[in-house]
Structures are given as C-alpha cells and as structure tokens.
Design a protein that fits this description.
This protein is an alpha/beta fold. It contains 20 helices and 28 strands. It has a nine-stranded mixed beta sheet with strand order 16-15-17-18-14-19-20-21-22, sandwiched between helices. Strands 4, 5, 6, 10 and 11 form a five-stranded mixed beta sheet that branches.
Amino acid sequence: MTAWGDFNDAAPLLEQEVGDIPTAGQIALDRLPGAGQPMPAAVGSIAPDIEQIAAFLDVAFGYCDGLIPVRGFVDQGQGLDTKPHNIWVPADRHAAASLSAYATWAAREGSAVYVIPGTVAEQGQARAEHVLQMQTVVVDLDAGDVAAKLAHLVQHLGAPTLLVESGGRTAEGAAKLHAWWRLTEPAEGEDLARLCALRGEIAEKVGGDLHFRSAHQPIRVPGTVHQKHGVQRRVMIREHRPRVEVELPDFAAAVAAMPTMPGLEAPTAAPGATRPGLDAVLTTPVREGAQDGWTRFQGASAAIGHFVRMVHEGRITGDEGWEAICQYNAACLRPVWPLDRLKVEADSIWALHVDRNGPPLLRAAAAPPGAIAAHTLGALLDDTSPMPDDLIGPRLLTPGGMLVLGGAPKVGKSDFLISLLVHAAAGAPFLRFTAPRPLRVFYLQAEIQYHYLRERLQQLRLDRAIVARARDTLVVTPKLRMLLDDQGVPLVAAAIRTAFPDAPPDIICIDPIRNLFDGGPAGEGENDNAAMMFFLQSRVEALRDQVAPEAGIILAHHTKKLSKQQVKDDPFLSLSGASALRGYYTSGAILFRPDEEQTERELHVELRNGPGLEPMLVDKRGGAWVELDRTGERLVRKDIGRRLDAERTRRHDVILRLIAEEAEEGRLCTANAFASKFENKRGLGGKDNIRERIGVLAMKGYIKYRRDARDLGQPYTKSKNGYLVVQDMLLGTGEEAIDPETGEIIPATVRVLPSHFQCPRSEALLEVENPEVWVLHDPEEPA
C-alpha cells in the first residue's frame, strides 16, 4: 500500500542544488549583522518585528539542529520582476537577528520572506529529501470560512501553539491563517514522513492548502511584511501559547479521529499516482497512525466511495451498500471505527457524490398484474365529481397535460412564453388565458444567456402587482449547455427540488426542446418518430414523474420553413420534427407572422381536451403583449391599402417638417399660404390636398394656431385660424447669438407657442388653456 502514501499534489517548486543558484541570488551570511549589532532600517512604511520573528523561530526550530532554508520571493502585483533570493540560517541563538536583518532587506526590495519549516544539513539544499528535522505540524487556511475551519480544528485537535495571520485575505474578506502545533521533540526519518502525511490529512479534512503534504513547501514568516499588490501588512502572530506541545502519536490519533468538515470532498490520490487495484484496497488492513503508508481515514474513504458509486448506479441497494461498508470496517480498519462515525462519513460522501453527479435515476419496479387502472362505462357515466381546475384555461394546459408552443426563429416565441409564464406565476390573466391561482413555474431555458435574460425580463411592461406576486413563484435558468439525458434528467430534477423545496411545481417549461433533445441510444434526431417518442416518454415524462406527476409541461419548439399559405391552411403541420409530437401533446399553439413587413402575429391553438379556440391576432405594444381587434382588419387589397397608409403618413411628416423649417427661416405661414407655396412640391399634391392634410393634422393635435404674431415681428393676418404652429417650433429672428456651451455663433430664435387649437369633436377653434403643454388627439399615438 506504499503507493497510496504519496498524495502530494503540490505544484512543483524550484529545487536547486548548490551550483544551480546564481551568485547574485544569494545573500551571504557574513554580510548580515551578528548578535548585538544594529540592523538597517526598512525603507517601507512597515518594518519587520524582530520579537515576532524570534517567537516564531522558537516554535518552529527551537529543538532542531542544522540550517533553516530561507526564501525571498517578490510579492505579486508590485510590477517587480526579480529572481528569488535564498539564504540558509543556522538554527541557533543568532537566528532571530540574522533573519530579521534579511527581512529588513527584503521589505526594502519588495520581497516576502518564507522558510521551509524544517532544517537541512548544508547550504543549497532545499528539496523534500534534504529536510532532516521538523518539530511542528502546520495547516494553511487560505480559502472559504476560515473561522469555521479554525473552530473545527480547535474542537478536535486542541488550540494551536501559534496562530498567525499571513497578511492575505480570502474572497470573503477574512484574514488567512496559519495554525502551528509544536511537537515535544523533532521528527526525523519515518516520523518525518508521518508528520507530512498528517499535514496533508488535516488540510484535506478542513479544506486547507494541500501543498503542505510536501516537506519542502515554504511558508511566510511572522513578523515580516506581506506586500501583494502594493498593500503592506505585517504577518502577525494572533495567538501564542508557548506551553502547548503535542506528542506525535497522540496528535496523529486525534487527526485520524477528526471528521471531515461538512461539504468537503474525501481525500484522493494525486493525479498520476500508481494506485493499488480495487481488490487490494478492499482487502488490505490499515492500522492507525498511518503505519501502512496511509491512514484509516484514507482507506475508509476509498472503500466508502466505491460502494457509494455502486448504490448510485443502481447495481446494489442502499441497504446492501451500507452492509458492505460495515464489513470493510470490521475486516480492514485496525482498530475499527465506531458505527456512528462510519455513518457520518458515508452520509457525507453520498451527499458529495449526489451533488456532483446528480440524484440516481431510480426507475419504478414493474407494476404488479392488475395495477393498470380501468373503469366501466357505468362508473364513468355516474362520476359527476367536479372537473380539475385548468392550470392555464381554457384547457390550454391541464394537470398532467403537455402544451407545445411552436414558432419560427425570431418570431417572438420566447418573449411571448415569458409573458405567459409570468402571468401564470402571478395568477393573472394573459390575453384570453387565465390561471386559477399563482402557480409555481420552473422555466428550463437553453437559449438566452443570463445577462440578456435579465435584460429581457426587465423590459417587460407588467403591472407592479403582477410582478410582485410572481417574484418567487417563477424560477428561470440561464442558457444551459447540456442534454436532457441520463445525467441531465437527475440534474434538472435536483434543481427543481432546490427551487421548490416545500411543494412541487405546477408547470415545468422547456425552451427549446431542440437544444436539450436526446434521441436515445441510437442517437437519432428530432425528425425520427422513435427518437421523439423516446425523448417525450423517457426524458420529459421521466423528469415530471420524479418531481411532480400532476405538473403541466410546456415545450417550446421551432417550426419548419413552409409557405405562408401552407401555414395558414394547417398551422400545426409546420412543427419541426416527427409527427409523433403532434399525436402526443394535449394542446398545441403556433405563433407566426402572416406578413413579414408587419409586426402583428397570429396565434392558433388546438386543444385535445376541449373545443378549439378562434385564432387571435396579437402584437407587442409598449412592451406588453395585447390582442388586436380583427374587425378593423382589411380583407381585400391589403397591399394597396398599406401603401396608401404609408403615403399619407409620409405627407403628414413632410408637412410638419416644412412648417418648422419655414419658421426657422423667419416665416410663419397660414394654411392657404403654405398650400400655395408648396403646391406640387415634395410630393404633396395640389393645394386642396395640402389643405385637407393640414385639417387632418389640426384635428389630431399635431398642428395648432397662433392668431396674432405681431409681437414676434410677423405681419397681421386676416386668416380666421391664424398662423400654423407645430410642437417645439422656433422662429428665426434674423439676428445672431452665441451658443453658451460651444461659443459658436448661431442664428437667434424664439419659441412660438400656440394660442388656439381645433376641437376634435366640434371642429370649433378654441383657446389653448396652457400653451406650454402640447396635447395630441390622435388615438393611435400614446398620450
């Protein structure tokens, strides 16, 4: 089992022989001040603390002989690029003074000070095999909930001799910590290997730095300066208990008994390590204290992991798996673990395996004979109980039913579906469709990425009350890159259970099925009937059966490229894929654009559980979907009518623009004067046509009038209406002005406000109540 002993996954470190280290990269010991000599002051704002350095050296090297390998690495983020500087300090009474002098030099050069927490025999030695003695066990807590990890260590191993803040911060802003336990005597030889294995096991159980499995892994020295990204902090001793020492065998037993923190992965061997076969793992005894090259914890974790995988894959039952774990415990662990601890570890590894691989796809046992429900005609006729409420009425989505919404790409299918689901989640009506109550909706969508999904949702113009009711009942996934296959179904089921832990969802929506389609072992596409039936029965229905058998399913699907006439003749023939889809769903809806030049869409619905619905003409207006009145729709000569409408709109725009341009030139016009000047120009037609268009624009409020403009330098007019005025119109005065922002000389202008407007009901000319407020009377324009 010695192959299991090397769990070292530490990143390779620079391992140099004496001749490999450049002379410029070394600091000679004879250049450092001796005992009692003054040290040079650090240039940085924070100076090293010799008292903390001395306290650390006593804990880490007080009982050791030989040389301490010291390393100086430039801290990241300072813009410096220099080689590491290395010295070897004798582990004697002068070590603190020598290391402090080096730390002062390092602070000035932007370097951090590290030591390998063990001694070597000669200068230049720094490999793992060179380390001869170690007298501490250390764990580096550099990520996650550092406080919880420290509390776990103190609870099971006791308070450390030394607790050091390394100067770094976790992503959550907590101080990174080094916890040190001093041994009663230095570890050498086999005990040294045992000590390194303990460091790795502690790190595995609390989520510490796994690099400390290696004897040559360096660590920061307390009292020196941490300077990453130009921010200076002293590596500080937070707690120091000089009387706390531990015996290596006792400490190893405590580490073996310490459980893994919840949620952490069981220890694994390093990549590339040669592992024994499974038979050897399950049959080789493992004694406490890592006497066999690895610990009882590692052996139990490997065995438990094997049986957990067998249960998860359905090869054995849960009871059989637990029995096999207990048999391994009794046969191989010396001494055996208590059953309660064995159960805790098994549950932890099972939870981790399920979190990583998804819940097991447990299939129901074959139904016994006679389990298929069957009812006589009389029983069906006599059953007068109330019908179940529609999930989305009328009969669009029934309990346990399936709605397929089809549409061509970019027709607005997903946008329409989102609005429908928001209203269903709020229990609010949407177009002709209603929900009896706020529904729990899980929207599994595989098209829109997160940021564009939230942008689309934020652009919806929905009533605040609807949004408030749907905030927690509609759960949406961002774009997924997965298939709804053997692995995808359990993952989605787990996500649904997490989203709705208290009650199952009412609706499960999949958008679109093409991006998640799994056609089964044969790998056929969605155009194959057998593949489509496999997907619907073994994937979609299996997902529903796992989380909510009575939930309604909504599937979004693309349509084929057919002519407009073919779609109008039978819209549901346009659904992409096999005909099996249409024979399987309980209701279908097709959204398509009858005229690509128009924004209106037609929505056709067919129901298997109720009468069909009349086609609807819908459009998105002002950010919300609305149903349009089909009674005003042209039935004949639609193309000509649209062209005439467009021409009238063009003439209106030209007239309004010309009135404003004339005013900027310093000229106000009456209706007759304007019609005479622009007759047969700009495509406006004759005078009568222009006057007619001006009258229409005045009735709609786009044009108003100014009876008397003599105060603006305009001549008196005898016209009964006065001068034409459009919104935000400016009159040129013929003078010049200076733009206050740019200093540019521009023509001077004054605002022209209306005094009268034409009443849209009586056609009478009435006085404007507030000329600063421009009111339109066009029913087609927003107020």
